[in-house]
């Protein structure tokens, strides 16, 4: 008898979440109450449709992260799918918060007793795919060191120029810092404890706690420019040391 394939062998096997998902709510006495969408007003049905879709996005991210951990999905496909889901999540979360349906994602997960530790880390803590945060060099990702250096340098310069040109909205700045982080993680030979990686990761966590429309204040812009400049200088020294050591 043939063995069954692993649970996450093919992410495409994950069934799509139905739009009319019925959520279950738990009262303060621990009693489970099923929320029917058929007996509510159109406004209430819209609310629960939105909550059901939000629930489905979070669960799908949990499945995706499990697939990544089990090496059941390729790096590029994971990055693409995760980026799309994060964008959908942020749009849905913003709408639900602005309409007063939820306080925040953490409270929503607790209220509906969701067991989604990986989704929490990806969506609530970092807000970027794991491939942006973690280094992974293999034959499929390898590019020449010269190209790595050029692309990383360009990302640093682009981010610093954008801030100097007074781009301050989170949804404008966060992708630039994410690009810097991604390029640093693809640089072969970069020390594991490279301070620039830690600094950019900290900024990504900060951005993920803000709304897309939020604006960085003068102090934040000054600090971010300083951190980028220090990290860029350290990266340049790394390139010089690597060249002398080769």
UniProtKB/TrEMBL annotation:
Subcellular location, record wording: Endosome
Q: Which organism is it from?
A: Tribonema minus
Write the protein's name. Vacuolar protein sorting-associated protein 28 homolog
GO-annotated molecular function? protein-containing complex binding
Supply the Pfam families for this chain: VPS28 (PF03997)
Q: Which UniProt keywords apply?
A: Endosome, Protein transport, Transport
**Domain VPS28 C-terminal positions:** 144-240
Q: Single GO cellular component annotation?
A: ESCRT I complex
Q: What family classification does the UniProt entry report for this protein? A: Belongs to the VPS28 family.
Among the record's GO biological process terms, what is one?
protein transport to vacuole involved in ubiquitin-dependent protein catabolic process via the multivesicular body sorting pathway
Tell me which residues make up the VPS28 N-terminal domain.
24-134
Role noted for this protein: Component of the ESCRT-I complex (endosomal sorting complex required for transport I), a regulator of vesicular trafficking process.
InterPro entries recorded: ESCRT_assembly_dom, Vps28, VPS28_C, VPS28_C_sf, VPS28_N, VPS28_N_sf
């Amino acid at each position: 008898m043939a063995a069954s394939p692993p649970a996450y062998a093919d992410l495409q096997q994950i069934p799509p979440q139905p739009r009319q998902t019925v959520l279950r709510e738990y009262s303060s006495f621990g009693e489970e109450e099923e929320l029917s969408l058929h007996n509510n007003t159109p406004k209430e049905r819209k609310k629960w449709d939105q909550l059901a879709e939000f629930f489905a996005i979070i669960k799908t991210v949990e499945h995706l992260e499990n697939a990544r951990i089990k090496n059941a999905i390729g790096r590029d496909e994971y990055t693409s799918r995760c980026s799309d889901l994060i964008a959908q999540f942020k749009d849905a979360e913003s709408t639900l918060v602005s309409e007063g349906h939820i306080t925040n994602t953490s409270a929503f997960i607790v209220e509906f007793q969701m067991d989604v530790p990986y989704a929490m880390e990806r969506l609530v803590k970092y807000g970027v795919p794991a491939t942006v945060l973690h280094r992974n060099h293999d034959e499929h990702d390898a590019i020449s060191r010269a190209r790595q250096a050029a692309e990383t340098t360009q990302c640093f310069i682009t981010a610093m120029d954008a801030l100097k040109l007074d781009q301050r909205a989170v949804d404008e700045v966060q992708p630039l810092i994410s690009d810097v982080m991604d390029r640093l993680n693809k640089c072969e030979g970069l020390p594991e404890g490279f301070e620039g990686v830690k600094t950019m990761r900290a900024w990504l966590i900060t951005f993920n706690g803000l709304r897309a429309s939020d604006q960085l204040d003068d102090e934040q812009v000054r600090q971010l420019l300083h951190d980028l400049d220090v990290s860029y200088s350290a990266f340049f020294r790394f390139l010089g040391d690597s060249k002398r050591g080769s």
